[in-house]
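Quick question: what would this complex look like in 3D?
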Amino acid sequence: MRCYGSTTGSPASRTRHARAARRAAPKPARDLLGGSPAVPGRRGAVIIAAVWIDTHSHLDAPEFDADREAVVARARAAGVVMQVLPAVEVANFAAVRDLAHAHGYAYALGIHPLYVHRAADADLERLDAELARLRDDPRLVAVGEIGLDHFVPGLDRERQERFYAAQLKIARRHGLPVILHVRRSADGLLKHLRRIEVAGGIAHAFNGSAQQAQAFVERGFRLGFGGAATFERALQIRELASTLPLEALVLETDAPDIPPHWLYRTAAQRAAGEASRNEPAELPRIGAVLAGLRGLAVDAFAAATAANARAALPRLAA
Ligand SMILES: [Zn+2]
């Protein structure tokens, strides 16, 4: 097992954490609830039901075409009051925006690293123009999903870097945080973030080292954790999820992808690495696993990570 002692770091980073903690301090319950259920307790006290924010859901994915309304209803019934829907290419900008408006969710616009091969250079101008046109849309909360993927073989790294750097500049120009795709690419992402300072955001499905995690936190980022952390063999992710400062964590499903372990229903599915479709209603159970890793009460963990999401994507708070 690796030693993560160094992640709590320098006085400068502790100050930063203290500042982040103040920023992320839970708001009064009414504010956190956003209209979701508060149920009367037995002695007349009001017990606040846990509320969750899924900071990364591809609700527009074709996997949800047959039953999207039911997926949304299940998420709400489970206490997932907010979903952030990142775009992946210009062609789905309207879809994520329309879904966010239809359901009271939030969205991000950007070109995903796995889609840059079919994007045109002019799409960067389209993104810039859309962000300008939608400047006053409170549901537009970030530029994303952008980043680098050094896991999938055969991708054009130079083109990915060019689109990533250009989109960081666009995010900076519009004063928006970014939602980052990180796969074997944390150092490459950080290299550009040192050069092009943006308003923080979320490193989604984080799977890097403790040192890389610390570097993102120091640049004002929160790290997204989800279904991968439910696997006992995911030692590094679980270690990070347990030891990072609480104010650094946000929750996500990445639905329909990254299913938690319980969605691999049969031995045959497990052997083939095939799971049932992931969906936002799974977030509370994923959150309960993470809360357990940290020894925290589930409701308190839900509230803290929801506050972190609002700190990472300030327009969510509006
Ligand atoms: Zn994604």
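Answer marked as accepted. The pocket of zinc ion is lined by residues 56, 58, 86, 145, 254 (CB under 6 Å).
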